[in-house]
Automatic annotation (TrEMBL):
Gene Ontology terms for molecular function: L-isoleucine-2-oxoglutarate transaminase activity; L-leucine-2-oxoglutarate transaminase activity; L-valine-2-oxoglutarate transaminase activity
Keyword line: Amino-acid biosynthesis, Aminotransferase, Branched-chain amino acid biosynthesis, Pyridoxal phosphate, Transferase
Cofactors (names): pyridoxal 5'-phosphate
Modified residues (N6-(pyridoxal phosphate)lysine): 184
Biological role stated in the UniProt entry: Acts on leucine, isoleucine and valine.
Protein name, UniProt field: Branched-chain-amino-acid aminotransferase
PROSITE patterns associated with the record: AA_TRANSFER_CLASS_4 (PS00770)
Chemical reaction(s) catalysed: L-valine + 2-oxoglutarate = 3-methyl-2-oxobutanoate + L-glutamate; L-isoleucine + 2-oxoglutarate = (S)-3-methyl-2-oxopentanoate + L-glutamate; L-leucine + 2-oxoglutarate = 4-methyl-2-oxopentanoate + L-glutamate
Biological processes, Gene Ontology terms: isoleucine biosynthetic process; L-leucine biosynthetic process; L-valine biosynthetic process
Organism (species): Pasteurella testudinis DSM 23072
Biological or metabolic pathway of the protein: Amino-acid biosynthesis; L-isoleucine biosynthesis; L-isoleucine from 2-oxobutanoate: step 4/4; Amino-acid biosynthesis; L-valine biosynthesis; L-valine from pyruvate: step 4/4; Amino-acid biosynthesis; L-leucine biosynthesis; L-leucine from 3-methyl-2-oxobutanoate: step 4/4
Length: 339
């Protein structure tokens, strides 16, 4: 199928209306069959819990065009399972994994012309979301729910993509120690809007949050997890109950150890021990791997590898991860789902 005419090499990360989206309704204890629609506007009750009490969650995953023209999804079952965990935390009905993955496939198939050409760097970003709807006003779980998936063709999330980006340590928290940081729920992102705006106004890509209990350890970027590479070849990424368990991060932990021979560690990353790292990066579906040039912490600016060059381990991890996603490198069992 031919693609639509877009400047594929230079797409940023923005909303572009595509042809079809999937929508399913939950009522009286069950999901309906779900369907594709061309309508990108939702008509919901003014009392919807998603609007008042933040009873909603979302996911993000991508479809990748391969050299042979086929299309890959990367670990969509992991997104389905993470959405189930978000639903458990916010008392929402879970979407079965099979229904989630099947809906992703339907959305990609019917919007195939929006999956950028192989080699352009563009991908089709899928945004599944689940919201509490129906007439309600008290603080309790909604009587009805909508699960939907729309998609947009996207390029780099951070300007420049695989180029070093600088970040700043935030004085705000995005999540509480026993709060909802590990769930992909809108409230965490609402909390990150002001810190993110302040960071960008100072020319940083985004901010990095510290652990909300002690403010001594790196947690994550507002839209991606953090990793660092030590002098002695360890891939280290924070372990915390208040960060989002990134599917990209877990994939990199595996690839770092199994394919690059590094020691992969989830542990504490103390903000006053950044000189242990010779390289650092932000990783996520949207961010892919974004090398971190430097981190501003108060008056101190710490540079990792370089503000202009990408370190060799970060480069290798990027090649391995994106090679798998675009079908050029053999994937570990079950990581790729063909559309
Ligand atoms: N952390 C946050 C706060 C995010 O929004 C994301 C994006 O989904 C990630 C980390 C990366 O997660 P994943 O690799 O599953 O996309
Ligand atoms: C993702 O990487 O899928 C995200 O959700 C990050 C951001 C767009 C919120």
């Amino acid at each position: 199928m031919s693609e639509v005419s877009l400047d594929w090499e230079n797409l940023g990360f923005g909303y572009i209306k595509t042809d079809f989206r999937y929508i399913a309704h939950w009522k009286d204890g069950k999901w309906d069959g779900g369907k594709l629609t061309t309508d990108n506007v939702l008509h919901i009750s003014e009392g919807s819990t998603a609007l008042h009490y933040g009873q909603q969650c979302f996911e993000g995953l991508k479809a990748y065009r391969c050299k042979d023209g086929s299309i890959n999804l990367f670990r969509p079952d992991e997104n389905a399972k993470r959405m189930q965990r978000s639903c458990q935390r916010l008392l929402m009905p879970e979407v079965p994994v099979e229904m989630f993955v099947d809906a992703c496939k339907q959305v990609v198939k019917t919007n195939e012309k929006f999956v950028g050409p192989y080699g352009s760097g563009a991908t089709l970003y899928l945004r599944p979301f689940l919201i509490g709807v129906g007439d309600n006003v008290g603080v309790h779980a909604a009587p009805e729910y909508i699960f939907s998936i729309f998609c947009c063709p996207v390029g780099a999330y951070f300007k420049g993509g695989m180029k070093p980006t600088n970040f700043i340590i935030s004085e705000y928290d995005r999540a509480a120690p026993q709060g909802t940081g590990a769930a992909k729920v809108g409230g965490n992102y609402a909390a990150s809007l002001l810190p993110g705006k302040e960071a960008k106004a100072r020319n940083f890509g985004d901010c990095i949050y510290l652990d909300p209990k002690t403010h001594t350890k790196i947690e994550e970027v507002g839209s991606a997890n953090f990793f660092g590479i030590t002098k002695d070849n360890q891939f280290v990424t924070p372990l915390s109950p208040s960060i989002l368990p990134s599917i990209t991060k877990y994939s990199l932990l595996y690839l770092a150890e199994q394919r690059l021979g590094l020691k992969a560690i989830e542990g504490d990353v103390y903000i006053d021990k950044l000189d242990e790292f010779v390289e650092a990066g932000a990783c996520g579906t949207a961010a892919v791997i974004t090398p971190i040039g430097g981190i501003q912490n108060g008056d101190d600016f710490h540079v990792f590898y370089s503000e202009t060059e990408v370190g060799p381990v970060t480069q290798k991890l990027y090649a391995e991860l994106t090679g798998i996603q675009f079908g050029d490198v053999a994937a570990p069992e079950g990581w790729i789902v063909k559309v």
